[in-house]
């Protein structure tokens, strides 16, 4: 439960930054995405940079639901998604393979479990986080 609250807080911060209209907030996610593109290409192995929630599936539908529930602070629905296998809590430094790069979200495969899904792009890196 504590882990879900921690991840929920991270998701809310990401959503807040994405929704802000001022230059400083809008520029920060773009810089993170640009640097990631230079370091991790589709098909390469990398790591997650933060604790996050993977929206499981071939399309980004479950990530959209995770984002919606996180924005509404709906912990019960997030827990339900995890219990149903539609979302997975991902620890910092989890090994992944980048399948598809998007501007705000990336499709990844978790190396250890083989689960495929979507996470925010700023959570993907070629280097293991310190």
List the uncertain runs. Answer: 16-38
- The total of beta strands comes to 7
- Classify the beta-strand content into a percent band: 25-35%
General form: globular
SS content category: alpha+beta
Total helical segments: 4
Report the order of strands and helices.
HHEEHHEEEEE
- How big is the Rg? 14 Å
User: What does the average pLDDT come to?
Assistant: 81
Largest sheet: 7 strands, antiparallel
Distance between the termini: 25 Å
Spatial order of the strands in the main sheet?
A: 3-2-6-5-4-1-7
Helicity level: 40-55%
List the helices and strands and how they pair.
Elements: H1 2-19, H2 23-39, E1 45-48, E2 52-56, H3 61-71, H4 75-83, E3 87-90, E4 95-101, E5 105-110, E6 116-120, E7 124-125
Antiparallel strand pairs: 1-4, 1-7, 2-3, 2-6, 4-5, 5-6
How would you summarize this macromolecular structure in one to three sentences?
By secondary structure, the protein is α+β, with helices and mostly antiparallel strands. Helices cover 42% and strands 25% of the residues. A 7-stranded antiparallel β-sheet has the order 3-2-6-5-4-1-7, sandwiched between helices.
Q: If you had to describe this structure to a student in words, what would you say it looks like?
A:
A hairpin with a 3-residue loop joins strand 4 (95-101) and strand 5. Helix 3 (61-71) runs antiparallel to helix 4 (75-83). Residues 16-38 have low confidence and may be disordered. This protein has helices spanning 2-19, 23-39, 61-71, 75-83; strands at 45-48, 52-56, 87-90, 95-101, 105-110, 116-120, 124-125. It is an alpha+beta fold and 130 residues long. A seven-stranded antiparallel beta sheet has the order 3-2-6-5-4-1-7, with helices on both faces. The chain is built from four helices and seven strands, in the order H-H-E-E-H-H-E-E-E-E-E.
């Amino acid at each position: 439960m504590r882990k879900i609250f921690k991840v929920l807080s991270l998701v809310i911060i990401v959503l807040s930054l994405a929704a802000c209209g001022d230059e400083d907030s809008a520029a920060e996610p773009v810089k993170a995405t640009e640097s990631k593109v230079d370091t991790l290409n589709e098909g390469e192995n990398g790591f997650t940079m933060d604790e996050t929630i993977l929206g499981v599936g071939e399309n980004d539908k479950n990530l959209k639901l995770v984002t919606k529930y996180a924005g509404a602070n709906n912990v019960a629905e997030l827990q339900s998604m995890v219990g149903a296998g539609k979302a997975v809590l991902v620890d910092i430094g989890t090994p992944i393979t980048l399948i598809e790069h998007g501007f705000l979200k990336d499709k990844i495969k978790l190396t250890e479990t083989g689960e495929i899904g979507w996470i925010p792009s700023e959570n993907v890196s070629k280097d293991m986080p310190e």
